[in-house]
Design brief:
alpha/beta; 272 residues; Rossmann fold; single chain
Length: 272
């Protein structure tokens, strides 16, 4: 049975740089700004595009949006067509990593490579419980308690201690966010499960995982590596779920090195 999906919507996005195109997807409840410090580091070598997904940031969510993977993939396809990009290097964070994995299966011809940051082959009981705790805290204790719960879950504790302004920065980001869209996408991801299908991915694939991630258990990085033929794995210690915020230089470096190696391989193959 086909997933429900409204027609695609135009997405707001940030674009910077020139070169091989890299598309960066944020996670549940976020927006493109999670990638800001990474964009600055990648744009000297790549054409970087970071959209706000449907209902997040400045992108619309028409009434009746289901936030199914088919719906979100349709939005991304429209964005690439609008930008004249037949193929991109795709990078997905968290639930954006779920979406990236699904799109790699559904439309591999649109992708030159795949990078998954703090993603998983399925939404397990632990991640579902974390998301439910966010929803319950917001509903029963209010916005401030919800904000503090997010900070505890999304970031490595030592990083928070060194960046005490993170609470206010996150507050400013979320104060005007449509949390209904985040909740709807969260509901859609609860049934995400690609186990048994990932072996069909034939794209160059790079898995990036924080071992101290409190949202997605670190073991999922290794599960993805062994499930996707030829995938490689980069592990980070003493880092939380929002790796692009905590370690932007290191995140940009591992993406840069991987995408550059794929581009070199494509150039060698075309000249052979």
């Amino acid at each position: 049975m086909a997933e429900p999906a409204l027609p695609p919507v135009p997405l707001h996005y940030r674009e910077a740089g020139r070169g091989p195109p890299v598309l960066l997807l944020h996670g549940l409840g976020g927006d493109h700004t999670v990638w800001n410090d990474v964009i600055e580091r990648l744009s000297p070598e790549f054409r970087v595009v970071a959209p706000d997904l449907r209902g997040h940031g400045r992108s619309p969510a028409p009434d009746g949006s289901t936030f199914s993977f088919s719906e979100l993939e349709g939005d991304l396809a429209l964005l690439l067509d609008t930008l004249g990009l037949p193929k991109v290097h795709l990078v997905g964070l968290s639930a954006g990593g779920f979406l990236a994995l699904r799109w790699a299966l559904d439309a591999p011809d649109r992708l030159a490579s795949l990078t998954v940051v703090n993603g998983a082959p399925h939404c397990d009981q632990h991640t579902r419980a974390v998301a439910q705790r966010w929803a319950d805290t917001y509903r029963t204790e209010g916005f401030d308690a919800y904000l503090l719960r997010l900070v505890k879950d999304l970031y490595y504790p030592d990083w928070v201690d060194a960046h005490l302004d993170v609470v206010e920065r996150l507050r400013r980001q979320l104060e005007h966010a449509d949390l209904r869209s985040a909740l709807a996408w969260g509901q859609s991801t609860r049934s995400f499960d690609l186990r048994g299908r990932l072996m069909r991915i034939r794209l160059p694939t790079h898995i990036v995982q924080s071992m101290d991630d409190a949202v997605v258990d670190g073991s999922h990085g290794r599960l993805l590596r062994v499930s996707i033929p030829g995938a490689d794995l980069k592990l980070f210690v003493q880092a939380g779920h929002l790796l692009p915020v905590e370690k932007p230089a290191e995140t940009a470096q591992t993406i840069r090195e991987f995408v550059s190696s794929v581009e070199q391989g494509r150039s060698a193959a075309s000249s052979a």
